[in-house]
From TrEMBL:
PANTHER family: ARMADILLO REPEAT-CONTAINING PROTEIN 6
Protein name: LRRK2 ARM repeat domain-containing protein
Keywords: Repeat
Keyword Secreted attached: no
LRRK2 ARM repeat domain span: 282-415
Length: 460
């Protein structure tokens, strides 16, 4: 036994510094011997400690992980960890090994779970709550394993949330622990088949995080990220609304009007609700919150893409909602955003779509498919058709921008046509019919509106 301990202790630093030695060690079948010795000398802490570290070291390389699991490495590690409940070093090395074995290789996650990986993680969290290093490693292992829906369900059924809540209350001033727990809680929200009561329980634990760690805005940021996960799932939007979370989300956005993370993730929630039609009763209120976010964070591209996307859904065939936005000088805000990010095609597409909805809503003389003569000037103050044409010319190969740009030009008013409108983007589309098939119809309609003479000449 003494000799075995010395050999194991010798192997650890050698394998840690030499990839060549690791490869040779595996090829020569030495891993099987290590696992057999760990099984034989289960009561020996030194063998278990160094054996776990050897497996963890070898599993750092992704190419080794499947080989190790075919030898049932995780089962040996879990057995050692559960047998030595009070050994900090065995728990630490064991969690390192299990975390490495289950990282990135999807098949390994199943075998680690089958061999008791979740139980091992929970055991470390409960028995080693005094050791922040072990706690964080166990949380990382859980983070790997909860990618499997079955693990999420069993974790919830086995009072895993109580373990996390107790952990938060006992591990104060641990920022890393807070982040790891938060990520687990947020991921649980996307579990297939999760119930409303389980979502309520997760939300309750999330709300304990800032109370324990005194993190400014922590609860609010975590909650909106949690809500974002919820609404991204099947039936998530319905559960979100039915559980009364919609009101909470509105309050969060209102109270945290200058907190970027809350606004960004909160607007993503609102966009998802609008896309799925769960905003109807409070569209005007939601739109006002979206508008405030755009004005409060003018330079944040990702936020503005989300907000413009939300505007598309909120204003689609919703004239009354569009009016709310426009009466708040929304057209000016949207055009400012468009000009600021005119070289960002992702934003341009959704901004053009939102503009189309808004212009349709304020058409003063719209009658089915008849052409629009004029708009309420005050409502569209800031809109500039010349900017639309200029931006179209910047993206000649982006079909969506050309299509929606053409649609905007079909909505040109008589006043717009008094300006010198450059028709080059439209004529270019007609010249490239094969690559711009989706845009050709709209280019013809736009020319018919602003320069019918050119369309007639082109057709001849």
């Amino acid at each position: 036994l003494q000799l075995q301990q010395e050999i194991f202790a010798f192997l650890v630093p050698v394998l840690a510094i030499s990839e060549k030695a690791q490869k040779q060690f595996i090829q020569d079948g030495k891993v099987k011997i290590v696992l057999e010795r760990m099984t034989t000398y289960l009561d020996c802490p030194v063998i278990q400690e160094h054996g776990s570290l050897i497996i963890g070291t070898l599993a750092v390389s992704k190419s080794h992980r499947s080989v190790l699991e075919r030898l049932n490495a995780s089962q040996t590690i879990v057995t050692a960890l559960l047998h030595h409940e009070k050994s900090d070093r065995i728990h630490e090395n064991g969690q390192i090994a299990l975390t490495n074995l289950s990282a990135e290789v999807y098949g390994n996650k199943y075998t680690v779970v089958k061999n008791g990986g979740v139980q091992a993680a929970i055991t470390s969290l409960t028995k080693m709550s005094h050791n922040p290093d072990v706690v964080d490693l166990a949380l990382k292992l859980l983070g790997n394993l909860i990618e499997l829906d079955a693990v999420c369900h069993s974790f919830l059924e086995d009072q895993g949330l109580d373990v996390l809540e107790t952990l938060l209350k006992s591990c104060t001033d641990c920022r890393d622990t807070e982040i790891l727990v938060k990520n687990i809680l947020i991921h649980l929200a996307s579990t297939k088949g999760i119930t409303a009561s389980e979502l309520d329980a997760i939300e309750r634990v999330i709300c304990t995080v800032p109370d324990v760690l005194q993190n400014n805005n922590g609860e609010d940021v975590y909650l909106v990220q949690f809500y974002e996960k919820v609404v991204s799932t099947v039936n998530g939007c319905k559960m979100f609304v039915d559980c009364g979370s919609f009101d909470k989300m509105v309050d969060l956005l209102t109270i945290n009007s200058t907190t970027y993370d809350v606004q960004f993730h909160g607007c993503k929630v609102m966009a998802a609700l609008a896309m799925n039609g769960f905003n109807k009763k409070r569209s005007s209120e939601v739109l006002s919150l979206i508008h405030n976010a755009m004005r409060n964070f003018p330079g944040k591209l990702d936020l503005h893409i989300v907000c413009c996307g939300a505007l598309c859904y909120l204003t689609e065939e919703q004239d009354s909602t569009s009016m709310v936005f426009l009466h708040q000088h929304g057209m000016s805000t949207l055009m400012t955003t468009l000009r600021r990010f005119q070289d960002e095609h992702r934003l341009v597409v959704v901004a053009f779509m939102a503009l189309e909805n808004l212009l349709k809503s304020v058409a003063a003389n719209e009658d089915n498919d008849k052409l629009i003569k004029s708009y309420d000037v005050k409502l569209i103050e800031g809109y500039d058709v010349l900017s639309v044409i200029d931006i179209m010319s910047r993206f000649p190969d982006v079909v969506d921008i050309q299509v929606f740009g053409c649609k905007l030009l079909t909505l040109a008013t008589d006043d717009d046509m008094k300006k010198e409108l450059d028709t080059t983007p439209l004529l270019d589309i007609l010249d490239r019919r094969k690559s711009m098939q989706d845009a050709v119809v709209w280019a013809r309609r736009a020319l018919q509106r602003i320069r019918p003479d050119l369309l007639e000449a082109e057709e001849r």
